[in-house]
Amino acid sequence: MGIPEEMRGSDSGQLTLGILDNDPYAVDYLEILFKRSSAPIHVLWTTTVPRNALKLCAAEAALPQVILTDMSMPEMSGIEFAREITALYPAMKVVGITALRSPDEQDSARQAGISAVLNKDETVMNIVRTLGHVVGNDAAMYWQGPGSIIALNDTECDIFGMFAQGRTLQSIAVRLGISPATVKVHMKRAYAKLNAHSRTEAIAICIRDGLI
């Protein structure tokens, strides 16, 4: 049975996606990553609450082809969410994303209807291609990745790499042997090079372009 009309891709042929993660930073990061990468993906919605995701899907215009969900959420696990959403929409595809994969989780995920489970540190190309594969979207499945690479110096890359690991401004300054004010100067210069307006956006661009 084919994908129902309401679950087809966007008019431009892009894959339609919903993003669910209880971490607001992760949600923002993923949405910015897809946008700045010019990936063939149209994000219909993002949410940090599983019940909200279920409600959003009730609107025909907000029903995506695939949902990218965190596997570990306090209100409802990714596996529990997948069971509920696929019971309501059997044609829906669900892809899990997690900080730490385990063989047991993979088996449980498959049984719950999750098509694939990815690590949170996967490259944007691998995420996009996996999403394309599970729904049969050629543009996403064979996407070659972002085109241009922006050059940052080693210190700038180190700073955003450490922010991506969860370090604070103060700890980064100590690690590099410079003052917090100097770290901010490096960040300001990097923002200008990347045309970024926030730390989250800068980190997403750096990961997209393989800088960190």
Task: Kindly summarize this structure in a few lines.
The protein is of the alpha/beta class.
Report on this model:
This protein is α/β, with parallel strands linked by helices. Helices cover 48% and strands 14% of the residues. It has a 5-stranded parallel sheet, with helices on both faces. Helix 7 crosses helix 9 (180-194), helix 7 crosses helix 10 (199-208) and helix 9 crosses helix 10.
Provide the descriptors you would attach to this structure in a database record.
globular; 212 residues; alpha/beta; 48% helix; 10 helices; five-stranded parallel sheet
Protein topology:
Blueprint: E1 15-20, H1 24-36, E2 41-47, H2 50-57, E3 66-70, H3 78-88, E4 93-98, H4 103-111, E5 114-119, H5 124-135, H6 138-141, H7 154-164, H8 169-176, H9 180-194, H10 199-208
Largest sheet: 5 strands, parallel
Oligomeric form of this entry?
single chain
Low-confidence stretches: none
Alpha-carbon Rg, integer = 18 Å
- Termini gap: 42 Å
Please report the total strand number as a whole number: 5
- Strand residues, percent: 5-15%
- The chain-level mean pLDDT equals 88
